[in-house]
Amino acid sequence: MRRVLVTGADGQLGHALASMLYSLPKEFFPVLTDHASMDITDVKKVNDICEQTDPDIIVNCAAYTAVDMAEVEAHQAFAVNEKGAANVAMAAFRMKIPMLHFSTDYVFDGSNNIPYTEEDSAAPLSVYGHSKLAGEFAVMATCPWAVIIRTGWLYSPFRSNFFTTISRIARERGKLEIICDQVGTPTYAKDLASAAVHVFRSMDGLTCDEMYKYKGVYHYSNEGVCSWYDFACAIVDLAGITCVVDPIETKDYPQTAQRPHFSVMNKSKFKNCFHTKISHWQRSLAACMESSGISSQ
Ligand SMILES: NC(=O)C1=CN([C@@H]2O[C@H](COP(=O)(O)OP(=O)(O)OC[C@H]3O[C@@H](n4cnc5c(N)ncnc54)[C@H](OP(=O)(O)O)[C@@H]3O)[C@@H](O)[C@H]2O)C=CC1
Ligand SMILES: Cc1cn([C@H]2C[C@H](O)[C@@H](COP(=O)(O)OP(=O)(O)O[C@H]3O[C@@H](C)C(=O)[C@@H](O)[C@H]3O)O2)c(=O)[nH]c1=O
C-alpha cells in the first residue's frame, strides 16, 4: 500500500483527491495535511511531517488561489505558490519519491486562438498567475522529476467555486450577469483526482532515473470549450433553477485582477503519456450535479 501525502487536503482538489484515495483502500493510504497541520511555507514543519510519515508520493494541493486578493497580497501569494511549493518539492527530492504539483491556465495571457500546448510561452496577466508560474520553475528546479499539471476552472460540490457560487446565487437573485468573452474549459475536481491517480500508478516503484521519463508540465482540464456564461447557463439548466442568465463583457464586470480571454489547453501530452481519456465538461458537470444533490433541492 502506498502512502500518499496530500498538502492542502481541506481545499477542493485536496478533498476530491482524499475521497478518491479512500475509495482505493488496497492501493493507497492517504496522509492528509491541511493549512493548520502543515503550513507549506514552514520548511521545518514540512520536513518534520515528511520524516514522521515517510510517504511514498507527495501531492501538493496547497495553494494561494484568491485571484483578486493576490493583486494586493503578492507577498503571501508568492510565499505559498512559489516558496511553499519549493519546500514540498525539496522534501520529495530528499526522499527520492514522486512529486505531483498543480498549476493554472492563468499562466497564459489569452492571446492564442487555438488550445495552448505545454510548449507555448507563458505570460501571466495577474499576480496569481505570476506566482503559480514562479512555483512551476521553483518545483522543477528543486525536484527535477516532478510532474506539474496545469489545470483550469476547477469546480466541485465542495468549498467555494464557480459551480457552488452560481448554484447559490441563481436561487437567491433570479437573474445573473455572466462574462461571455472569457473562454476556457471547466475541470471537475473528481476527474482531476482520477488523473492524479493515473500519474501515481505510472510512477509507482520507479527509480529516480526512471521517474525523469515523466518530468515536466502537462495540461489537464475536461474536454470541450465554453465561456463562463455557457458554464453558468449549463449549471442553472441542469439544476432546474428558474433564473435569467444574461451574457456580459469583461469590461462590464470590474475585477482587480486581469484574466485571460482564452485559456483552453491542449491535453494530448497528458492523454498520450498516461494512457487516459478525458470526459467532456458537460458530462462531468452532470456527474457533479448528481453527486451534489443540488438539482433536487
Ligand atoms: N480553483 C481553481 O479554479 C483552480 C486551481 N488550480 C490549482 O489547483 C490547485 C488546487 O486548487 P484548489 O483545490 O481549487 O484550491 P483551494 O483554494 O480550494 O485549496 C487550497 C488549499 O490550500 C490551503 N493552503 C493555503 N495556504 C497554505 C499554506 N501556506 N500551507 C498549507 N496549506 C495552505 C488552503 O487552506 P486555507 O483555505 O485554510 O488557507 C486550501 O485548503 C492549486 O495549485 C491551484 O492553484 C488551477 C486552476 C484552477
Ligand atoms: C460570480 C460571477 C462571476 N463572473 C465571472 C468572473 C470570472 O471571470 C468568472 C469566474 O469567476 P471566479 O470567481 O470563479 O473566477 P476566478 O477566481 O478567476 O477563477 C480562477 O481561479 C483560479 C484559482 C484559477 O486557477 C483559474 O483557472 C480560474 O478557475 O466568472 C461573472 O461574470 N458574474 C458573476 O456573477
UniProtKB/TrEMBL annotation:
Catalyzes the reduction of dTDP-6-deoxy-L-lyxo-4-hexulose to yield dTDP-L-rhamnose. The lineage of its organism: Bacteria, Pseudomonadati, Thermodesulfobacteriota, Desulfobacteria, Desulfobacterales. Signal peptide: none annotated. Its EC number is 1.1.1.133. It catalyses: dTDP-beta-L-rhamnose + NADP(+) = dTDP-4-dehydro-beta-L-rhamnose + NADPH + H(+). SUPFAM superfamilies: NAD(P)-binding Rossmann-fold domains (SSF51735). InterPro entries: dTDP_dehydrorham_reduct (IPR005913), NAD(P)-bd_dom_sf (IPR036291), RmlD-like-bd (IPR029903). Transmembrane segments: none annotated. It holds the Pfam family RmlD_sub_bind. GO terms for cellular component: cytosol. This is dTDP-4-dehydrorhamnose reductase. One of its GO terms (molecular function) is dTDP-4-dehydrorhamnose reductase activity.
